[in-house]
Records
---
Amino acid sequence: MNSLTDRYLAATLPSVPSARREEIAVELRGSIEDMIEDRTGNGQDPGTAEREVLTELGNPERLAARYADRRLQLIGPTYYLVWLRLLRLLLSFVPAIVGTVDAVSSAATGEVGVGGAIGSGIGTAIEVAVHIAFWLTLTFAILERTTPVQGLGDWNVDQLPRVPVDREMSLASTATAVAWLLFGIAYLPLQHFQSWIESDSGANIPIIDPALWSSWLPVLLAVLVGSVVFEIVKYRVGRWTWPLIGVNVALHLAFAVPVAWLILSDRLLSPEFVQRFEWLREGDNLGTVANVTAVVLAVVVIWDVLDSVRAIRRRHA
Amino acid sequence: MVSDDILRTHLQELRRGTVVVASLVALRRPDYGYALLQRLAKHGFAVDANTLYPLLRRLEEQGLLTSEWNTEESRPRKFYRTSDEGESILRQLLDDLAAIQISVTGLTEGMDR
């Protein structure tokens, strides 16, 4: 016998509590037959009646879950907020840190180029993020199913996050940042005429390749000027916002990427400057200096961006 | 204009608890699943079968209903009846239902003034 009712019962029973499965089976079959009989008694065709009754009872798994008083959710309201908070907290810094460490160490071993190192770092960060999300969710899904509601610690007013009354941007830090930027803006042209490094004949040697004046140096100067404007705007706003962070990242990249690329392709420093210092010419010392500079640039940029993101996180934590 | 969906959700919420009260009242006279469903429907409690059958089991596990198999008829049927414990719970639920009605009335009349 393989009627629709048989199939319906077979689909319902496996997930019903086993202790009373037999009893539930007999009762449910009886109820279904009662319902069908009632309809055929009113002149309905038995096949149609059976279909209608089973449709009314609905998805057998849902019915079984009601019998078992089982929760039809992965993570319910008891744990959802804790899960979300933990997930956000972990994702906000762990993947970035592990990714950065990975990128720096693969750049340091020198087996891959800087591009490859950054790619490897991003890949690792994504992998770590997926792992965190999966294992955390799995843990909570198991908690949801095994532990009867246990004390998570009731919420109390002391947990309210402090609303920042102090400005995140102090005048001192803004002034320092602007001063450094102005120094950088002044130094770029200055080193061309007066670097205090002289050739044997006493002529001034520029540190940065003069060829760049017709290509990248104006761009870098513009980025530095832009950064001064940005610092002032940031101070006026008084706190980190997502748009500010976006502009900050763009400015950082606009400066760090060309510089890293130029130094890695041996185009940043002027040939005379390299000639003047024997140590730079020895072995691969120039390459090492380039690599270290690029990594330091990357770390500084990532650190600064993370710092600003943390400021926002603190506010919303 | 509030959508029908919103109204339906609120009505469902309002009715949810009353199914237990209605079942406990109705089962002062023993009955089996489908017959109870029809009786409740006749008295204006339109309960879904897939809600009522598991509910009866749960009330039985909580000791508010007792059950007995009747094998005299064409097919075996499980008859439920409100237990003494169920009766005492039911009284408190009915009191509360009445209290809600009084509160709502009081509030409505208070608003008119």
---
Amino acid sequence: MNRLGLIIYREWITRVRRRAFIIGTLLVPVLLALGVGFGAWMENAEMEQNKVLVVDLSGMITFWDDTRQAYLPICPECFPKREHLQYRFADQALDDADFLLSDFTSMVLLDDAILQHGQAKNLYEKSPSITAQNAIERDLSSAIERFKVKEELSLDYETYKRLKTKVSLVGEDIVTKDGNATGRSLIGFVFSLFMFIQIMVYGMHVMRGVIEEKANRIVEVIISVVRPMELLAGKIIGIGLVGVTQVIALTVLGFLMFQVGGQALEMSGVLTSASNEAVELDFETWMASNDLLGFVLEVNWPLMVVCALVYFAAGFFMYAALFAAIGSAVEQESDAQYLMLPAMLPLLASYITAAMAIQNPEGQVAVIGSYVPLTAPILMLIRLPLGVAWWELALSLSGVIATAYGFVLVSARIFRTGILMHGKNITVRELFRWIRHD
Amino acid sequence: MPTAPALDISGIEKRFGEQRALADVGFHVPQSGIFGLLGPNGAGKTTLLRMLNGITAPDAGSISFFGEPLTRGHLPSIGYLPEERGLYKSMRVGEQALYFAQLRGLDKKEARERLRYWFDRLEVDGWWHKEVSEVSKGMAQKIQFILSVLHEPRLLILDEPLSGFDPINAQRIREVILELKAKGDTTILLSTHDMGSVEEMCDEVALLNRGQLVLNGKVPELREAARDGRYAVSFRDSVMGFTVALGASAELIEVNPNPEVPGEHVAMLRLPAESDIATWVRWISEKVELTSCMPWRPGMRDIFIRAVEQQNEPAA
């Protein structure tokens, strides 16, 4: 193994074998599962009553019933009775003021354009829960599907598959006119949050490692054997690999939990159809039919995991180089505080923007932030589940990689001088002198 | 054909901002001996040692290593024990020793064998599986010393190698250093403030002060050259009797009891330039009981202090 390899291996192995790392890694999926379970319980416990007015402008899925003096669905079974969801039907939309005065929580507008683009506008005063939205989408999909099948005169199975339609609700707040993509961006936010934590935690590891080597005076011996740049690169790569190891371990554990947990649930017979409790379902079907968990299956997981790894690698290099430079410029961790703040601001800003972008992931701030190198590793991940053009991904990634490269070069200059400096408070002016000094 | 010196240091200059750390420093370090690099704190010794290890580069001047311009390629042939040294606290002793040995270019198997020998030799065996945070300071010092000699370097740079050791372990390390010298395969560059060690171990020294070379040469020659006409005279008499007998025949510098012989004193005195020592000894022996009279050769401590003070004195 060459020297760089030795440094990388030491940085990696001394961390991944620590009890705290192993326990922490094992605990994350357990805590996540508990969190999801708690969230599901809370969602059900706090589910509000939803009363939806379906406005069928083209008369595709409703008819006027003279006896009941009301519009009714042509396919009543498409709109099953649900505990927290009631439907009413109409052929004309209420105007905004009437809607706000009514007891409807949302109003879905359907016209025959849905046959082309599969989208229906959902107007609301207060955004319905993800569970309610999923249920409405499924019900409308099923009703439109019936309509299409009825329209087709000579229907065979292949034709049916071609006509199979999924309706997605394009939400819009009736007051603010904001789009609703809450459910879609939730996964992205989880990834962003995870990325934020990983970059922070392992970036701090790099800084502490540098401070330890400097304070313990180990560095003098090491850089008499390897170049400071090799030491810096080995440290960043080694600690970065600890993060990657954790991501891989969590992915494997998550997959195993999904499989083993699913099988256990299947065998226990608790997975039953929501409409008929006598019908037992397999885990995947149950997930797909579950109001809260169904969207988990709709995410392109391989793409998300690969992008998360690439953004983690580039983003981590960028921030770790910065943290390493800070570590080399100070004597002890407490001295690093005043330098840490400006370095952490972009990270914190990205996290706050990501949290706000759950409601509006395609908003201007999130979109611009996903191109800015310092915030892109976190903000691009929140947009990815919604679909991002390849050029946007390329622009964002190349910016992050170029900035990471620049940061490593600048940090190496600070690092090589800083690690040998003792007993002196470093000024910002001096830092710039070190950067300029070749 | 004369052999090239282990180090040929010539015209070295180094500045840190406004501060001049080394100014036109140059000397040779001959092969296979122990060369002392001396100087007060801040004299530029560490800066020079860092240059030899490729940690920093000189602004001007050149360094040759066994006849070749010193490059990073020579670093595996150099062992370095810095004054400020440490180990990774959360790593096990053996694992850490293997890591540093491999960084120095040894393969794992060879490193393990050599470590076994050195751990046994310096009584560190039994600590292989312990974390560094569990070992004593002295034990950690021994491990660091082992790591600097393990790869059998051609040049071994030791910066205060005996500091932090108890007298027994200091003697053990001193013996190892002298043994390495006796084998003749290793040139040792010893930086220390312990002048006793310099007199005991060093063949040659260079003294730096304020970034400049102020003294350079073989230890016996420097001591001989530093003689200033003083004699150490031992006598069995009262100090008063000796002083009266001496009269104006010599300048009495100091008198101290001889710690090794009870009832005896040692006087340090300087004879006038025209006096003959043999005649003077015969003359004084008639008045007091002399036991010895030796020309006084200053120790390295005195040479060090005198050289530094002379340079530090403002020009008249």
